[in-house]
Design a protein that fits this description.
With 402 residues, the protein is mainly beta. The chain is 5% helix and 37% strand. The strands form six sheets. Strands 6, 7, 8, 9, 10 and 15 form a six-stranded antiparallel beta sheet that branches.
Length: 402
């Protein structure tokens, strides 16, 4: 039997939620992969091309295609076939930077920074600007080592740009934290830094599985705003920070709005950018999500009169090839809301465990657990102090509250 070698002939975004890839395989005709189209197109690719080729293609499309902007209704589930789920319509919590800083090039599998810069304002009032120059080691070429270019606001202007090469690789070890005010690399125990660099496991809703990506997150007392750069990628054209407005810290009208105005200063996960947000907003209301184990779970969290909440989960495993759903498994648990936060929930265990005993060394959010070790986390909102519900990066939420 001949070796079947597949290469990417085309990768494009056809509309806001349609991801199209054409593969050319040596032993088969070229075939389309459309994750938001008919599921029947997917098994053809899986059967005719080796898995690594499918993985590369799906990751490329996930990085290249943006989710629909605010105001664009995502495709609704197909009511005629409730046993098929289209994961590409689901949404995720949107951090201020996260993994949205790069474009993925299929030819050579290269991560190229987008022409963006970010203004960071600390709790002490310092303002710095930075852009990502590269995620490749300047000495070895290995991926996972960030080079940042940064400036600091001084009086009415900006300092001269400087470059900072992080000492360490996020692929090989724990998160790395950077203080751009000094600048210096710091221990990730707060305070003293603005950026946490980490390789995270994120569910690619276009691909239907988790991919590893280098990502950036903010310290609790830092707010960020994004600036689109010109082709010159010059940081000396950054705006006066006084002209950049704050994003209002208020719940949106739509609790599944996960995009916000990135041109305004905002926290890493403001209320305006959370798929679920405040726990009280989903109290007693069912929501549907894809879990880290790739099951479709309908979850209801109902708060009691005391400091507890009843959690009920009904889940069905998703077939990765065609999106079909398996048999239903149900589980319940009780959350002790008086326990120290964060509280982690793993929905795919038979006992619906709360894996706190396995995550004793976690310091949220500076050193979160591996994304696949939990599905939901209950935290204290940094602004309001109320309980908030966040998604693991390796999960996604159906954009509707049932």
């Amino acid at each position: 039997m001949p070796t079947n070698v597949c290469t990417v002939a085309e990768a494009a975004c056809d509309g806001p939620a349609r991801h199209v890839v054409r593969l050319v395989c040596s032993a088969w005709p070229s075939v389309p992969l459309d994750r938001s189209g008919p599921p029947a197109t997917v098994p053809a690719v899986v059967r005719t091309c080796p898995l690594p080729a499918v993985v590369v293609v799906a990751a490329a499309v996930a990085a290249a295609c943006e989710r629909p902007p605010v105001g664009v209704d995502p495709p609704a589930p197909n009511p005629e076939d409730p046993d098929i789920v289209d994961v590409s319509t689901f949404v995720q919590d949107r951090p201020a930077i996260g993994g949205k800083w790069y474009e993925y090039t299929v030819d050579g599998h290269v991560l190229t920074p987008r022409p963006h810069a970010w203004l960071l304002r600390t709790g002490e009032g310092d303002v710095v600007g930075f852009r990502i120059v590269s995620v490749y080691d300047p000495e070895t070429g290995a991926s996972g080592r960030f080079t940042l270019e940064h400036v600091r606001r001084a009086g009415a202007g900006w300092s001269a740009p400087q470059r900072f090469v992080v000492d360490g690789n996020v692929k090989d070890g724990p998160p790395l934290c950077v203080d751009l005010v000094s600048p210096a690399q710091r221990d990730c125990a707060p305070p003293g830094w603005q950026l946490r660099l980490v390789q995270q496991s994120r569910l690619s809703v276009a691909a239907g599985f988790a991919v590893a990506e280098p990502a950036l997150f903010l310290a609790d007392d830092v707010v960020a705003a994004r600036v689109d750069l010109t082709a010159a990628l010059a940081l000396d054209v950054l705006p006066d920070p006084a002209s950049v407005a704050m994003l209002a810290e208020a719940p949106p009208a739509d609790p599944t709005t996960t995009d916000w105005d990135f041109a305004r200063f905002a926290r890493d996960l403001p209320e305006n950018g959370r798929a679920l947000g405040a726990l009280e907003r989903v109290d007693g209301r069912a929501f549907t999500m894809v879990t880290t184990a790739f099951s479709l779970a309908t979850v209801t969290i109902t708060r009691g009169d005391d400091d507890t909440a009843a959690v009920a989960v009904s889940r069905r495993p998703i077939d990765r090839a065609d999106g079909s759903l398996g048999e239903t498994v149900e589980a319940t648990a009780t959350l002790d809301l008086a326990a120290p936060r964060p509280l982690f929930l793993k929905l795919d265990d038979a006992a619906l465990r709360t894996p706190a005993e396995d995550l004793a060394d976690v310091a949220w959010p500076t050193t979160p657990p591996f994304a696949k070790d939990y599905d939901l986390v209950v935290v204290d909102d940094a602004v309001t102090g109320d309980l908030a519900l966040l998604l693991s990066p390796a999960t996604a939420l159906r954009p509707a509250v049932d």
